[in-house]
Specification:
Number of strands of chain A: 10
Largest sheet of chain B: 2 strands, antiparallel
Radius of gyration of chain B: 22 Å
Mean pLDDT of chain A: 88
Structural class of chain A: alpha/beta
Radius of gyration of chain A: 22 Å
Number of domains of chain B: 1
Distance between the termini of chain B: 61 Å
Structural class of chain B: mainly alpha
Mean pLDDT of chain B: 89
Number of domains of chain A: 2
Largest sheet of chain A: 10 strands, mixed
Chains: A alpha/beta (326), B mainly alpha (502), C mainly alpha (154)
Shape of chain A: globular
Number of helices of chain B: 20
Oligomer: heterotrimer
Number of helices of chain A: 11
Strand content of chain A: 15-25%
Number of strands of chain B: 2
Strand content of chain B: under 5%
Helix content of chain A: 40-55%
Chain lengths: 326, 502, 154
């Protein structure tokens, strides 16, 4: 019986085939940096990783390793970041608003808070958008608003899921306008705009960066943006602000570390992001993806997260009972 | 215009570097697929950053080749050690392992390889020719239609339960029940999670799958002293099957291939769903239903043809509309974005060079899969010669690392083992495991799409009948439900007897 | 044999799970709890039906029973010990580190199961662990816990 020998030879041959080396350098960062991803590969936070990390690697001279720990809308990864990750600056996570805050606002079982994090830099903010199918009767946002007024609670509006940015955008919209729509939660932005594009729902509250390729190709029509100003690539689409609705919202993605990392690591990382934001390749790459760079570093980012937390908590406390009633 | 693009892609794909990338990707896919717990999705995700240094068409072709290779690779483990290497090979276990146990491991693997090849070629041809037209099918499937698909899928539980209807249905119901664990997508309330946030996104069904199939097998291998004769050790039969056998199986393969393409196109469903639909249809079409589960070649050909057909099917909406048809293609899109190519309708126009190279690469990878598959499969013979106890320990180790790798979490390892123990006891009581798996796969889809549909219709159930697609699918479900009852069988027998009497 | 007892245990287990889903589901908003409650009722009914069937068939088959004669007997202790070993293995991975726990588990299992001699057991345990290290850690870069070996492999 020589089979165990053959097995070993097979394994060894494979091992050689797979072997890969890596070198190390001195001073922070002196080894690879792990990025915890709270979502599946291919999702929005993965997109950000692919926009930034190849260039970050060039800047800091170390590789960035993505570690996907999907589940509980990112809460598993963020809990790990806040509670168990080593505070040495070699573990970061992509932090997405509003899920970063709404997770623990909405679920008492989720125990991390933004207080336990050291926000490094926000990179992009993807403003909210209203999209409809190309053959939808709503030609403009006025048509949409008129229909909602005439049929309270009947117009179906998709969002990316309970607790997501589009969900909160819809709630704020309802609060400001005094109107009522039929919210349909989907499992992610994709299914939501796809349902709108296929005419399954009347409209989708979504994000500019995600729907832009379809808007550009004419498969979806953008009615309005939830941003401070119009976006240059779709200059004809008005903002809700212009129409008199004080409604600016969207989802932001950036990088955070656990609280208590060495000051040296924090400064080095912030410097790296500042360099990143000035690289022409990155600016161009962001444009190609219809991502809007919205750089905020260190304490500014921290303040932004804290302000948002307060806002979301306020809204959720108002609607919670109605939404989760028995 | 399209024709020019097709030619352009063809000349591109034969660039030596692209050929090498496809060959490497297919081989890696075979290896990854054959390892229980390592899935194609995972391998693609891990290799996306590597493609950054390649040309876009080379990188993306390599990723697609991994996907293709893994779909066949999964069946190797399913047939040889009764452990699906990928979730899409779960249905292959049902007939693949019994056939191998009879001493026909080579035949089982050969059928699987041929079927994978047929499914792969079918879907790549569809992809190359009619993809732009078919893309819109993906948009036709909203919540209402998906609910009908899930209901149709429920009838598979009935069909898998023949022989011991009550036990099968019980397993299916438990599977459905367990699929409701996790955050309710409609209200955001965590359900049945025992306060554990690891369960907030539900029970990852790949984890359950590894546990339910592999651990019981590992225990079975050591529970008795080994009898030499019971082991799969003959590997004398050829992997390349004779034409007469293939011709007989061809209708099954083609039918399964079409199912695979179709299921692939529907966003949110992939090989893990398609293999069960295809298995079910093969069984429904067969006159010899009793031999399914005992090593019927159709029971191997159907799931294997369908899961490779999913690759092309899932790419249809991906390239024509930028809508990923499965989780693996979602990552493929990410691989394009790394090169600044926005996923969306422009893939067919602005980036036609890349896209059509990819499409040819898919076809090419099926050919590589066949050639490399024969060699790789022969290299896997050694598994059949390992003694049961030795193999059992290796299976356990692979399951543990595989379950961990799915979400990089130890919670999943414990969960996997708990399902393993459940599976072992179910096996001892001859309660079939397959219905539980189907329940777990389809339960989430059923629950979510039902509630979304009812929100859309303001609570009216009529929405399912007013929608033509869903009404047709539901009627089909009703029909196959009736067909699987003993009453129908009796009626059919009586009718036949009457005919013969005449 | 205790076929009825075994079925009863499984039915009780299924009912216990369903019972939890039933109780918890009833305290949820209707849209979240409706389907699980319905399904748990279904599990109750089917468990009951399975029991009835098991009792009936055990009455019919009480005389004719010897299908297992040809095969070697089921080694219950061995299975239980093996399961205990696996549980200990899973428990130890995050604490000792994967690449200590794995060779150890393999070695102990082989010796306990008398699958191989000490030399071969050692060789395969270490060889297989090395293979996993190269495939999962070096190539696929999975964050497998190194535990005590962290300073050497990390």
């Amino acid at each position: 019986m020589r089979h165990w020998k053959r097995m070993l030879v097979m394994l060894l041959a494979l091992s050689v085939y797979l072997c890969a080396g890596s070198a190390a350098l001195a001073a922070y960062p002196e080894k690879q940096i792990t990025v915890l991803q709270g979502f599946k590969p291919g999702g929005g936070s993965d997109t950000l990783a692919q926009l930034t990390q190849p260039y970050l690697e060039k800047i800091v001279g170390q590789s960035f390793i993505n570690q996907y720990i999907p589940g509980a809308t990112g809460a598993i990864a963020w809990t790990q970041l806040a509670k168990t990750a080593k505070k040495d600056g070699y573990t970061l996570s992509i932090t997405n608003t509003p899920m970063l805050q709404t997770n623990y606002i909405m679920n008492p079982q989720i125990t991390y808070t933004i207080e336990e994090l050291e926000p490094i830099a926000n990179v992009v903010t993807d403003p909210g958008i209203i999209v409809v199918a190309k053959d939808s009767p709503f030609k403009t946002v006025e048509d949409f608003l008129k229909a909602v007024k005439e049929n309270p609670g009947k117009v179906t509006v998709g969002n990316s899921g309970v607790g997501g940015d589009d969900f909160f955008t819809t709630l704020i919209f309802e609060k400001i306008s005094g109107l009522k729509v039929q919210m349909i939660p989907f499992e992610g932005d994709g299914p939501s705009w796809q349902a709108a594009m296929g005419g399954k729902i009347d409209a989708s509250f979504n994000n500019l960066g995600i729907t832009y390729p379809q808007v550009k190709a004419g498969n979806l029509r953008a009615l309005a943006l939830f941003a401070n100003e119009r976006y240059k690539l779709i200059p004809d689409v008005p903002t809700m602000k212009e129409l008199g609705y004080e409604l600016v919202s969207g989802s932001s993605r950036g990088y955070s570390a656990p609280k208590g990392i060495p000051e040296e690591a924090k400064t080095a990382l912030i410097e790296a992001f500042k360099k990143l934001a000035s690289m022409p390749e990155v600016i161009q790459g962001a444009e190609e993806r219809a991502s809007i760079l919205d750089m905020k570093y260190g304490d500014d980012y921290k303040k932004m997260l804290a302000d948002q937390e307060q806002e979301f908590r306020g809204i959720w406390d108002e609607v919670k009972d109605e939404y989760q009633k028995k | 215009m399209i024709f020019d693009n097709i030619l352009l892609g063809l000349t591109n794909v034969f660039a030596p570097l692209n050929l090498a990338a496809v060959a490497f990707g297919t081989g890696l896919g075979l290896l990854v697929g054959a390892m229980p717990g390592l899935s194609a999705t995972m391998a693609i995700a891990l290799l996306v950053p590597v493609t950054f240094v390649m040309r876009p068409e080379t990188g993306i072709s390599m990723l697609a080749a991994i996907y293709m290779g893994a779909m066949y690779g999964g069946s190797i483990a399913a047939i040889l050690i009764r452990t699906p290497g990928t979730p899409a090979a779960a249905a292959t276990v049902l007939d693949g392992y019994p056939m191998a146990q009879r001493g026909e491991a080579g035949r089982a693997l050969g059928i699987s390889l041929t079927a994978s090849f047929v499914g792969g070629v079918m879907s790549s041809v569809v992809l190359l020719t009619v993809a732009p037209m078919l893309g819109w099918v993906a948009l036709m499937f909203g919540p209402v239609e998906l609910f009908a698909v899930a209901v149709l899928g429920m009838t598979i539980i009935g069909s898998l339960s023949q022989g011991s209807a009550i036990k099968g249905l019980l397993a299916g119901a438990v599977g459905l029940l367990l699929s409701t664990v996790g955050m309710d997508p409609i209200t955001g309330i965590p359900r049945f999670t025992l306060g554990n946030i690891n369960l907030f996104s539900g029970i990852p069904f790949t984890v359950a799958l590894i546990g339910l199939f592999s651990i019981p097998q590992a225990l079975r291998l050591i529970e008795r002293d080994e009898v030499e004769a019971e082991r799969i050790n003959s590997f004398s039969d050829r992997i390349l099957r004779p034409w007469s056998e293939i011709r007989e199986l061809l209708p099954t393969m083609v039918r399964a291939g079409l199912i695979g393409i179709f299921v692939g196109i529907i966003p949110g469903t992939g090989g893990d769903t398609a293999c069960w639909f295809a298995y079910n249809e093969a069984k429904r079409a067969s006159d010899d239903k009793a031999s399914f589960g005992q090593g019927n070649p159709h029971g191997i050909a159907a799931p294997e043809a369908s899961n490779n057909a999913v690759v092309g099917g899932a790419l249809v909406p991906t390239i024509s509309l930028g809508i990923p048809g499965s989780s693996a293609t979602a990552i493929l899109l990410g691989g394009l974005m790394i090169h600044g190519i926005m996923p969306g309708p422009t893939l067919m126009t602005e980036y036609a060079g890349v896209t059509y190279t990819l499409l040819w690469a898919v076809l090419l990878s099926t050919i590589f899969m066949f050639v490399e598959g024969v060699i790789f499969t022969k290299a896997c013979i050694f598994v059949t010669a390992i003694r049961n106890k030795t193999l059992s320990v290796a299976i356990v180790v692979l399951c543990v690392v595989g379950a961990f790798a799915i979400n990089n979490s130890f919670f999943e390892v414990g969960l996997m083992f708990a399902f393993g123990i459940l599976g072992y006891f179910m096996d001892k009581l001859s309660i079939p495991v397959a219905p539980l798996v189907v329940g777990l796969i389809l339960g989430g889809m059923l629950d979510v799409s039902l509630h979304q549909s009812l929100l859309m219709s303001q609570g009216s159930w009529m929405i399912f009948l007013k929608n033509p697609i869903s009404a047709a699918l539901l009627a089909l479900a009703l029909f196959s439900l009736i067909q699987s009852t003993p009453m129908y069988e009796r009626w059919k027998r009586e009718r036949k007897a009457r005919k013969e009497a005449r | 044999m205790g076929s009825v007892l075994h079925h009863a245990l499984f039915a009780a287990f299924a009912c216990a799970i369903a019972g939890y889903f039933f109780v918890a589901g009833n305290s949820m908003p209707a849209s979240a709890g409706r389907l699980p409650v319905l399904l748990s009722v279904l599990v109750f009914i089917l468990s009951g039906a399975m029991m009835v069937k098991a009792v009936r068939s055990s009455r019919q088959n009480s005389e004719q029973e010897a299908p297992e004669a040809a095969r070697p007997p089921l080694q219950v202790t061995r299975v239980a010990a093996y399961v205990a070993l696996i549980v200990a293995y899973i428990y130890c991975i995050p604490r000792l580190g994967y690449f200590i726990a794995t060779p150890l588990f393999m070695l102990l299992s082989y010796l306990y199961l008398r699958a191989l001699g000490i030399g071969r057991s050692l060789l395969i345990s270490v060889g297989f662990s090395l293979f996993i290290y190269l495939l999962f850690v070096r190539f696929l870069k999975l964050p497998i816990p190194m535990g005590l070996l962290e300073p050497f492999l990390g």
